[in-house]
Amino acid sequence: DQFHMIVDMSNPEKPEEAGRWWLPGTRVGDSEAAPERQAIDTGFRLHNVNVYPDHPDRAYMGYIDGGAIIVDISDLSNPSMLSRVDYHPPFPGFTHTALPLFDRDLMVVSDESVRE
After folding, report:
1. Which of 7, 21, 63, 68 is most exposed, with minimal Cβ within 10 Å?
2. Phi, psi for residue 73 in degrees, rounded to 5
3. Which pTM does this prediction carry?
4. Backbone CA torsion sign across 89, 92, 97, 102
């Protein structure tokens, strides 16, 4: 599976790593238990991430078999998961996009169809 690197691009000629984040339980040596795998394992990895100018301290992620995730990125050197909605299992995975509707206090989450 994957980790996510936050890169400081303030000097485009010399990008620098600012921080890292991974889904708890997916890194070797994690203290958290590994998440349950799907029968058709497409992995715990990012499909889509959105960071909005009016809410620059949050990353909204569609995380394939990991569900919809909100990460606090207010401290780029120490990102942390705020929320995770994971409904696979029992349903097959492949969460595509997490789209917050800020003015309604809602989030729309879409999945791709990966089997009948």
Report:
1. 7
2. -115, 25
3. 0.86
4. negative
